[in-house]
Amino acid sequence: MLYNFLFPLAEDFGLFNLFQYLTFRTSGAVITALIISFLLGGTLIRQLKKLQGEGQPIRADGPESHPLTKKGTPTMGGLLILIALSISTLLWTDLNNRYVWAVLIVTIGFGTIGFIDDYIKISNRSSNGLPGKIKLLAEVVIASVIAWWISTIMTDPLSNSLTIPFFKNILIDLGWFFIPFSALVVVGASNAVNLTDGLDGLAIVPAMIVAGCLALITYIVGNQVFSSYLQVHNVPGAGELAVFCGALVGASLGFLWFNAPPAMVFMGDTGSLSVGGAIGAVSVICKHELVLAIIGGLFVLETASVIVQVISFKLTGRRVFRMAPLHHHFEKKGWKEPTIVIRFWIIAMVLALIGLSTLKLR
């Protein structure tokens, strides 16, 4: 919004020339989202606590310590992320950029699904929310529509193609399969973040790391000079998503202030589904879907642990892990919560650095 209103006045007011630079607007988005989070966080948490009473329902089959340490903590804190992210994005991005609107629709759409899920849990005082099939169907519909829209915005040969990390010239034409593949990436990323969100601060920091990496990647692929130098495929217009990713980093930092152990609020499905959907959609637009599996490797590990656990139990009647997702396995082994969280943050950072190396190793 600021770009659309102020940059055209740059000839009369030289200072407004700053708004043409993505780096300036990305920094502004980070700071704005962070300030909004600080200003609204305390009030929102008090209101959520007042409305929810006993807070988020705790799983009966979860770790034994959770009923003692998590009881009374309100959920739906993802609303704070959504508000800060949306306002900051609308303020600092070029509103004529259709990629921005595509990602915003996914973020808000998945956030709405998560909000309904959280609301049902709170209303019924149960850890069971929206039926899984309905929840998944709604996510698939939103992701598929946006994937189709992205394919119409993007120019050939990238519109329906998949790039391969470490190879500069390989471009696989997926044809019509691009839409279900992209929907799988978005829905998969969304639910992977959701599965990881089980301990204070565990999911939001890796999500923030991924958002920061995607900010750099979108800036590079959207810039013809940098993309040519690094031999990555140029996606005109994708650079504007660096501002969105910056807003997500700022909103995540602001939420972490209140979610740091011991958490004052949980993000709930409202936050985890929306944040995961957002990073999935950005990866599809910047043609780094496979790289997302590396920089977001922690989310992949958490999801894989659940899949392995379910398959093993159904086929053999035995469990590979003491409890899934993976972070609960280490809780069962006696690791303290801060130890698990910080070590998982370290893993997330290492995987993000490996993922970023694909920009140069070609």
Could you characterize the architecture of this molecule?
The protein has 362 residues and is mainly alpha-helical. The chain has one domain. It is built from 15 helices and two strands. The protein has helices at residues 2-6, 22-52, 66-69, 78-92, 98-124, 132-153, 178-196, 204-221, 224-230, 241-259, 268-285, 289-295, 297-316, 326-332, 337-357; strands at residues 161-163, 171-173. It has a two-stranded antiparallel sheet with strand order 1-2. Helix 4 packs antiparallel against helix 10, helix 8 runs parallel beside helix 11 (268-285) and helix 12 (289-295) packs antiparallel against helix 15 (337-357). The longest helix is centred in the N-terminal third of the chain and has 31 residues, at 22-52. The model has no long low-confidence stretch (mean pLDDT 91).
